[in-house]
Fold this protein.
Amino acid sequence: MTSPLGRLRPEHLPARRVADLVRDLDVRPAAGGEPLTSDLVLTGVSMASADTAPGDLFVAVPGLKVHGARFAADALARGAVAVLTDAAGVELVRAGAPGAVVLVGDDVRALAGPVAAWLHGDPAQHLVTVGVTGTNGKTTTTYFVDAALRAVHERTAVLGTVELRIGDDAVESPRTTVEAPVLQSLLALAAERGAGALTTEVSSHALALGRVGGLRFDVVGFTNLQRDHLDFHGDMEGYFRDKARLFAPGQAARGVVVVDDEWGRRLAREVQIPVETVATHVDAPEAQDADWAVVEADVGLDGVGSRFVLRGPDGALHEAASPLPGLVNVSNAALAVVLAHAAGVPLDAAAAAVGRAHEIPGRMERVVERGDGFPLCLVDYAHTPDALVLALEAVRPITPGRLVIVFGSDGDRDRGKRPMMGEIAARLADVLVVTDENPRSEDPATVRAAILDGVRSVRPDMADVHEATSRAQAIADALRLTTDEDTIIITGKGHEPTQEIAGVFHRYNDRDVLLAARAERQGQLA
Ligand SMILES: CC(=O)N[C@H]1[C@@H](OP(=O)(O)OP(=O)(O)OC[C@H]2O[C@@H](n3ccc(=O)[nH]c3=O)[C@H](O)[C@@H]2O)O[C@H](CO)[C@@H](O)[C@@H]1O[C@H](C)C(=O)N[C@@H](C)C(=O)N[C@H](CCC(=O)O)C(=O)O
Ligand SMILES: Nc1ncnc2c1ncn2[C@@H]1O[C@H](COP(=O)(O)OP(=O)(O)OP(=O)(O)O)[C@@H](O)[C@H]1O
């Protein structure tokens, strides 16, 4: 996917002297290079050569695969005026681009954010900023928070897995949390366009790789911690420690932590910033000590949403609602209300706005309504074992007939979860269509076989278990197998606009494919 950086820079570019960068931040001219001239001016920062624009500082970081300094010549050819790198990078820049202006710093990945914030004049100070981390629920919670912030700000920005949105303008997002220079440039653009608040998802990769460096959030939130991304973080302890970085004093002024799981309780105990705690499971022991607690929840059997009652720190009870089905969304909504309140939105306005929030692409999204021979069809992003359990439990009560799941598991990612996903689906759904998610470089059949091993361990006769070698075929098969009493839930890819197969990103979206399959089936039924 093309990076949106070029399209999302502020219209009024900043202009600051390289000499002032050396004066203000912990960087210095590399020995033996061109002397810094006082008229050398920067108007942008980039970390990827393809995203470099004239006037940029190219920050060349040592990558996990390759050193960014290898691409300095490319960045300079695109108009970069200087390169910031580490000691190892200096030699590489000199080899590829002799004569370049080279600055050097010790940890350039960590410097990228502060440098970009410096260049843009610390744009975050003009906005209320909210960051949300946790394994599941980040996207949903950020959209809920954004809905609440819009109750008091005419224009807002929301950044995350689904899109990068400022006011009504949005582009596809290259990842959950953009690189630090892109984030700072988006903050500057949001401020320039008069946005009063910005909410962003903060992934654990972002925290480990300094993508939110240079930004001190007004409020940050934690949803939960579940098994995911162990290929990157090593173990749960490492994953937790990376998440906890968001709650460091330099990174956020205050926090709101869901304490339903032990990781949340530990985070609330250990962090050094003021935090409010939220317990979202009715009558759970942690509710007694939590600042905020969901004390009643009525999970709507119409599958549209839930009403709940939130007890505040003063003991007062507040009516609130989640516009999406399932108890997990009560949890996300409760967190969002408290986060928005901490970010300056009156409590009842926050609760009302969250209850009315619009549908979120690929999050329990109702794509086909039940009726006329068609089952209710939802597209959901559940791609971890815990999320899958919760998603299936959320749709069971709204399913008069059979619960059908179309699902797979990612290639080149945590292999251990594949049989677990199969076991869960076999336990909690009636009909299974096992297919591909993003096989990446792996043989899709191998990934499916691992899932099917898990299915077999729970359902040895493999009754009502189907395998489809393409996701579009799986969706068509599911529609063919069902009537309007049933529910189909398609999990794993949510809003994603592409499917990655053997290194190639093919345009693919579950919602679009489902609607096309429905139209075709309607033709067959007519
Ligand atoms: C594992 C991981 O996060 N890797 C990130 C890491 O990659 P890397 O260190 O391997 O980078 P590299 O390929 O060695 O390249 C080194 C440097 O050279 C630059 N380069 C490279 C090639 C080139 O032609 N020109 C160029 O300038 C790169 O931009 C980079 O700055 O640093 C790169 C730039 O800083 C990131 O783009 C890259 O994210 C990759 C694309 C990625 O897929 N990340 C995923 C796992 C991720 O971040 N996911 C989380 C969400 C997870 C979730 O909750 O689901 C996210 O926030 O999206
Ligand atoms: N609070 C929650 N606890 C557990 N599972 C949840 C929660 N909220 C949502 N989910 C499930 O996780 C899926 C992903 O939700 P969402 O996109 O909001 O999370 P996310 O943290 O943004 O995920 P990712 O970082 O992978 O994009 C949903 O489709 C739903 O099935």
Remarks:
- Residues 134, 136-140, 161, 176, 201, 203, 223-224, 328, 331-332, 363, 380-382, 386-387, 390-391 surround adenosine-5'-triphosphate (ligand 2) (CB under 6 Å).
- The domain at 5-119 is CATH 3.40.1390.10 (Udp-n-acetylmuramoylalanyl-d-glutamate--2,6- Diaminopimelate Ligase; Chain: A, domain 1).
- Residues 151 and 523 are 44 Å apart (CA to CA).
